[in-house]
Amino acid sequence: MRGKFKIRQLNKRTGESTVILEESNQVSQGMKHALVNILCGRGSREVEDYQFKYFQLGDQNYNLSTFDVSADVPASSLLSNFWTIKSPLDPSAYGTDSAVTVVKRDIYGLGSIIPSTRGKVFDNFVDPPDTTKLSCSYTNNFESNPRPIPPGPRKTTWIPGCANTWEKKAENYFLHPLELSADYTVSGPTFTSPTWSIEYNSSSNVAGITSCLRGSTEYIYNDGRKPSYWNQGKKNQTLSVYYMPEYYASSLSTSGSTPTVGKLMLYNRTAAVLGGDSVAGYNQVRFEYRYDLKYSSSSTPGAAWYPPEITQAIDGYSQCTGDCRDKWEGSYGSGVTGGDVSANVYCRDGAIYTPADAEADYATRNGPGKDCFDTPNSGFGPSGNFYRISVSWNNVPDEVIDVDTGLVSGIALQAFNYPLFSRALSINPTTGAITSTNDHEVTPREQLYIANLQFEYTPSATPYQYIHAEKSYYITSSQDFLVIPKGYTTSLNDNTANVRLLIDEELANNQTIKEVGLFLKNPNGTAGIDNPFLTAYKVISPPLAKNNEFSYIIDWELSLIDSTTT
């Protein structure tokens, strides 16, 4: 299916008509869903429910051709996989003097429920692989305090852990070492909120501990399976996450609450057991957060976040020495190593490091994003302060994958994410130099925002595909729509549907219109109130600076085209 989009501007004073934009548009997810309803005999049985009934105007836009997600996601994969326009106008913005009717309807789409608030969030661009969907309504979130009382089924894939001694103390029962909460004030790498705020427990003594986020097991797949605590390691796998730490300028008394170091680890428990030392399982990357500590803090307009710097990427075999190395070779065989552990940092221009840079221990930077390294706020999200960090464990020897001693076998793998590994003990106000420590007993607690934590079995993870993926959970949410009058939809060709939208002189005046969405009436046949489906979307560039001197006519044509034709 293809779409053509044309806007004509009408001058009220002179009557002159001018075509100001004529381009193709994105056909969105709602059209696919509606067609499947028709072909499979589900959804509404009323023809009227599949007609174009509503449209929306918005003051922001999904620029899908350059959407800042990740260097390894082609823009073409994003074009149709969304359910809502980015920022629809409300009745106060549309005004009260226009002849175009404004109504409130429950828009339909794929989404999540955030556990801490029970708020609804549309998951634009999320399309989980069928083989990993969970039976829960929400999954790609983090568990927050208090822990379930008593412990029971969870509806999150990631929970705080890695501080066993602390968690087993009586005074810490039902508490997490890390406090997590959904934060709607900070938009993440996808330009949407919420993100997840993380800090060490503020009501308990956390001196001397270091906590991580790890996979949970208290959820169930659609086929009824319950996951093991340990994943089965493969030849290649990647763990990655987007971070935005809060920081404090060196001149402030709170400068010691600045996060300095993070760590990502693919922990091979089998190797740790066979080697007799935990380090044999440490396939990890360490990185340093970077800011402008001399002049700015995160609360000032001049705040500056730079891409983190990789300081170490090392496999478990390299750390397994002495008696541990002897046990390793006794289990895996002489000359068998631990595979290749590498890391990368991604800014909006792509990966900062190349394989050659990894060989040079990250002392050089030659990736497509290399110029970001010295450019503040060159990451993802509205402020450019989220950066993606990944650790990959690739080319794992077959002997490590296939080991079987009768007691342990394969790779029992767990993804560990240490977002707050250490904080700033002191900062030199002249040079900005930092001395780090693992003592998190500080006020305020060091804090960080996290988004899109993912664990995949491929060297190049994508930001919206999870090994533990979200269930296809469809939600509705109330929004404001403009009504398309009867008679404004027709067919000018055998294979086209043609829709005319009117933006009259009194509609949305003093608004900057950057996007428009076209909706089918109610393809699911929901009783009581329409659940419109977004079927086509267009970014308006340059934007329309709407005033009462002009009206606009939008002619939208959707056509069914054989993909083999040009």
Walk me through the structure.
By secondary structure, the chain is mainly beta. Helix content is 9%, strand content 36%. It has helices spanning 29-40, 91-94, 164-167, 269-275, 316-319, 323-332, 355-359, 398-401, and strands at 2-11, 17-24, 26-27, 52-58, 102-114, 119-122, 158-161, 178-183, 195-200, 212-215, 231-232, 237-245, 259-268, 282-291, 305-314, 340-347, 350-351, 387-394, 412-427, 434-437, 447-456, 474-483, 489-490, 496-503, 512-520, 533-545, 550-559. The strands form four sheets. Strands 7, 10, 11, 13, 14, 15, 19 and 20 form an eight-stranded antiparallel β-sheet that branches. The chain has a seven-stranded antiparallel β-sheet with strand order 3-26-25-4-22-5-6. A seven-stranded antiparallel β-sheet has the order 8-9-21-12-18-16-17, with no helix packed on it. The radius of gyration is 27 Å and the shape is elongated. The two termini are 12 Å apart.
Strand content: 35-45%
Distance between the termini: 12 Å
**What gross morphology would you assign?**
elongated
Q: What structural class do the secondary elements suggest?
A: mainly beta
Number of helices: 8
- Low-confidence parts lasting 5 or more residues at pLDDT below 50? 67-73, 113-118, 126-133, 457-472
The average pLDDT score comes to 83
Summarize the amount of helix as a percent range: under 10%
Radius of gyration, CA atoms, in whole angstroms: 27 Å
Could you give a short account of the major beta sheet? 8 strands, antiparallel
| Count of DSSP strands | 27
